[in-house]
Amino acid sequence: MRRKLVIGNWKMNGNRAANTALLSGIVAGLNDFGADSAVCVPAPYLAQCQAELEGTALAWGGQDLSVHASGAYTGEVAAAMLRDFGATYVLCGHSERRAYHQESNALVAQKAVVALAAGLTPVVCVGESLAQREAGQTEDVICAQLQAVLDALQAEQVARIVLAYEPVWAIGTGKTATPQIAQDAHRFLRNCLANKNAAAAAAVQILYGGSMKPENAKELMAQPDIDGGLIGGAALKATDFLGIIQAV
Ligand code: PEP
Asked: Taking the complete model, does pTM exceed 0.90, yes or no?
């Protein structure tokens, strides 16, 4: 039985005062909803998360990491630095990183490997654009994105990743995938995982991301292969984020 997991992706939002209000609002409302929860925050706020969340049920993580351990890589953040500030998760290959920073499938795979080696749980993001969906390429695209990661992992490491299916056309657009569209993609991804390691495929949490809100979360999370959500906009308001966790 897979536990549900809800992760907020703050993207490049927040400031210290607003973060304190948001984090304390979430923590105050967290109950035994039967789901794990986390926030992935801009790197400068990891210390704030560590100071304000340690000992609570809300975990935290980064939004990206470097493939390098240390050295002359200006602007990059190493996996060990994320660990140093208590991070549990790190997003790998979010579509905004792929689009605006030209992250290739191979680079994303390397990031997942580096994250695992540092003791972080990589949240590997895959998803097709609208043009790719309309051209009937959804499965080819998400399979290639996932396969690059699977090729880079040992079979026994597969169970230690989290996968997020985030159709690019649904991110920040208010257009949510229907539960059936999302379920079909999740089932397909689970079958791809099974080709590498069948036991691990049954254990990996596959999150849906793309305009998930309290109003549509219940129906999405009721699908057999949807194990939670990766939440952008709705993660910036405590009541919305809690509403999604509660929908589990
Ligand atoms: C995201 O950025 O990962 C995301 C799912 O955003 P939103 O919920 O705003 O669509």
From this structure: yes
Domains in the chain, number: 1
| Cα–ligand 1 centroid distance for 10 (angstroms) | 9
For 96, 126, 154, 230, the CA distances from 208, given in Å and listed in that order, are: 16, 10, 25, 6
For residue 117, the domain's CATH number is 3.20.20.70
Structural domain boundaries enclosing 56:
4-247
ipTM score here? Answer: 0.98
Ligand 1: residues within 6 Å at CB?
9, 166, 171-172, 209-212, 230-234
Q: In this predicted model, what pLDDT tens digit does every residue of 166-208 receive, in sequence order?
A: 999 999 999 999 999 999 999 999 999 999 999 999 999 999 9
As a whole number of Å, the end-to-end CA separation of the chain is: 14
Q: How far apart are the CA of 88 and the centre of ligand 1, in A?
A: 20
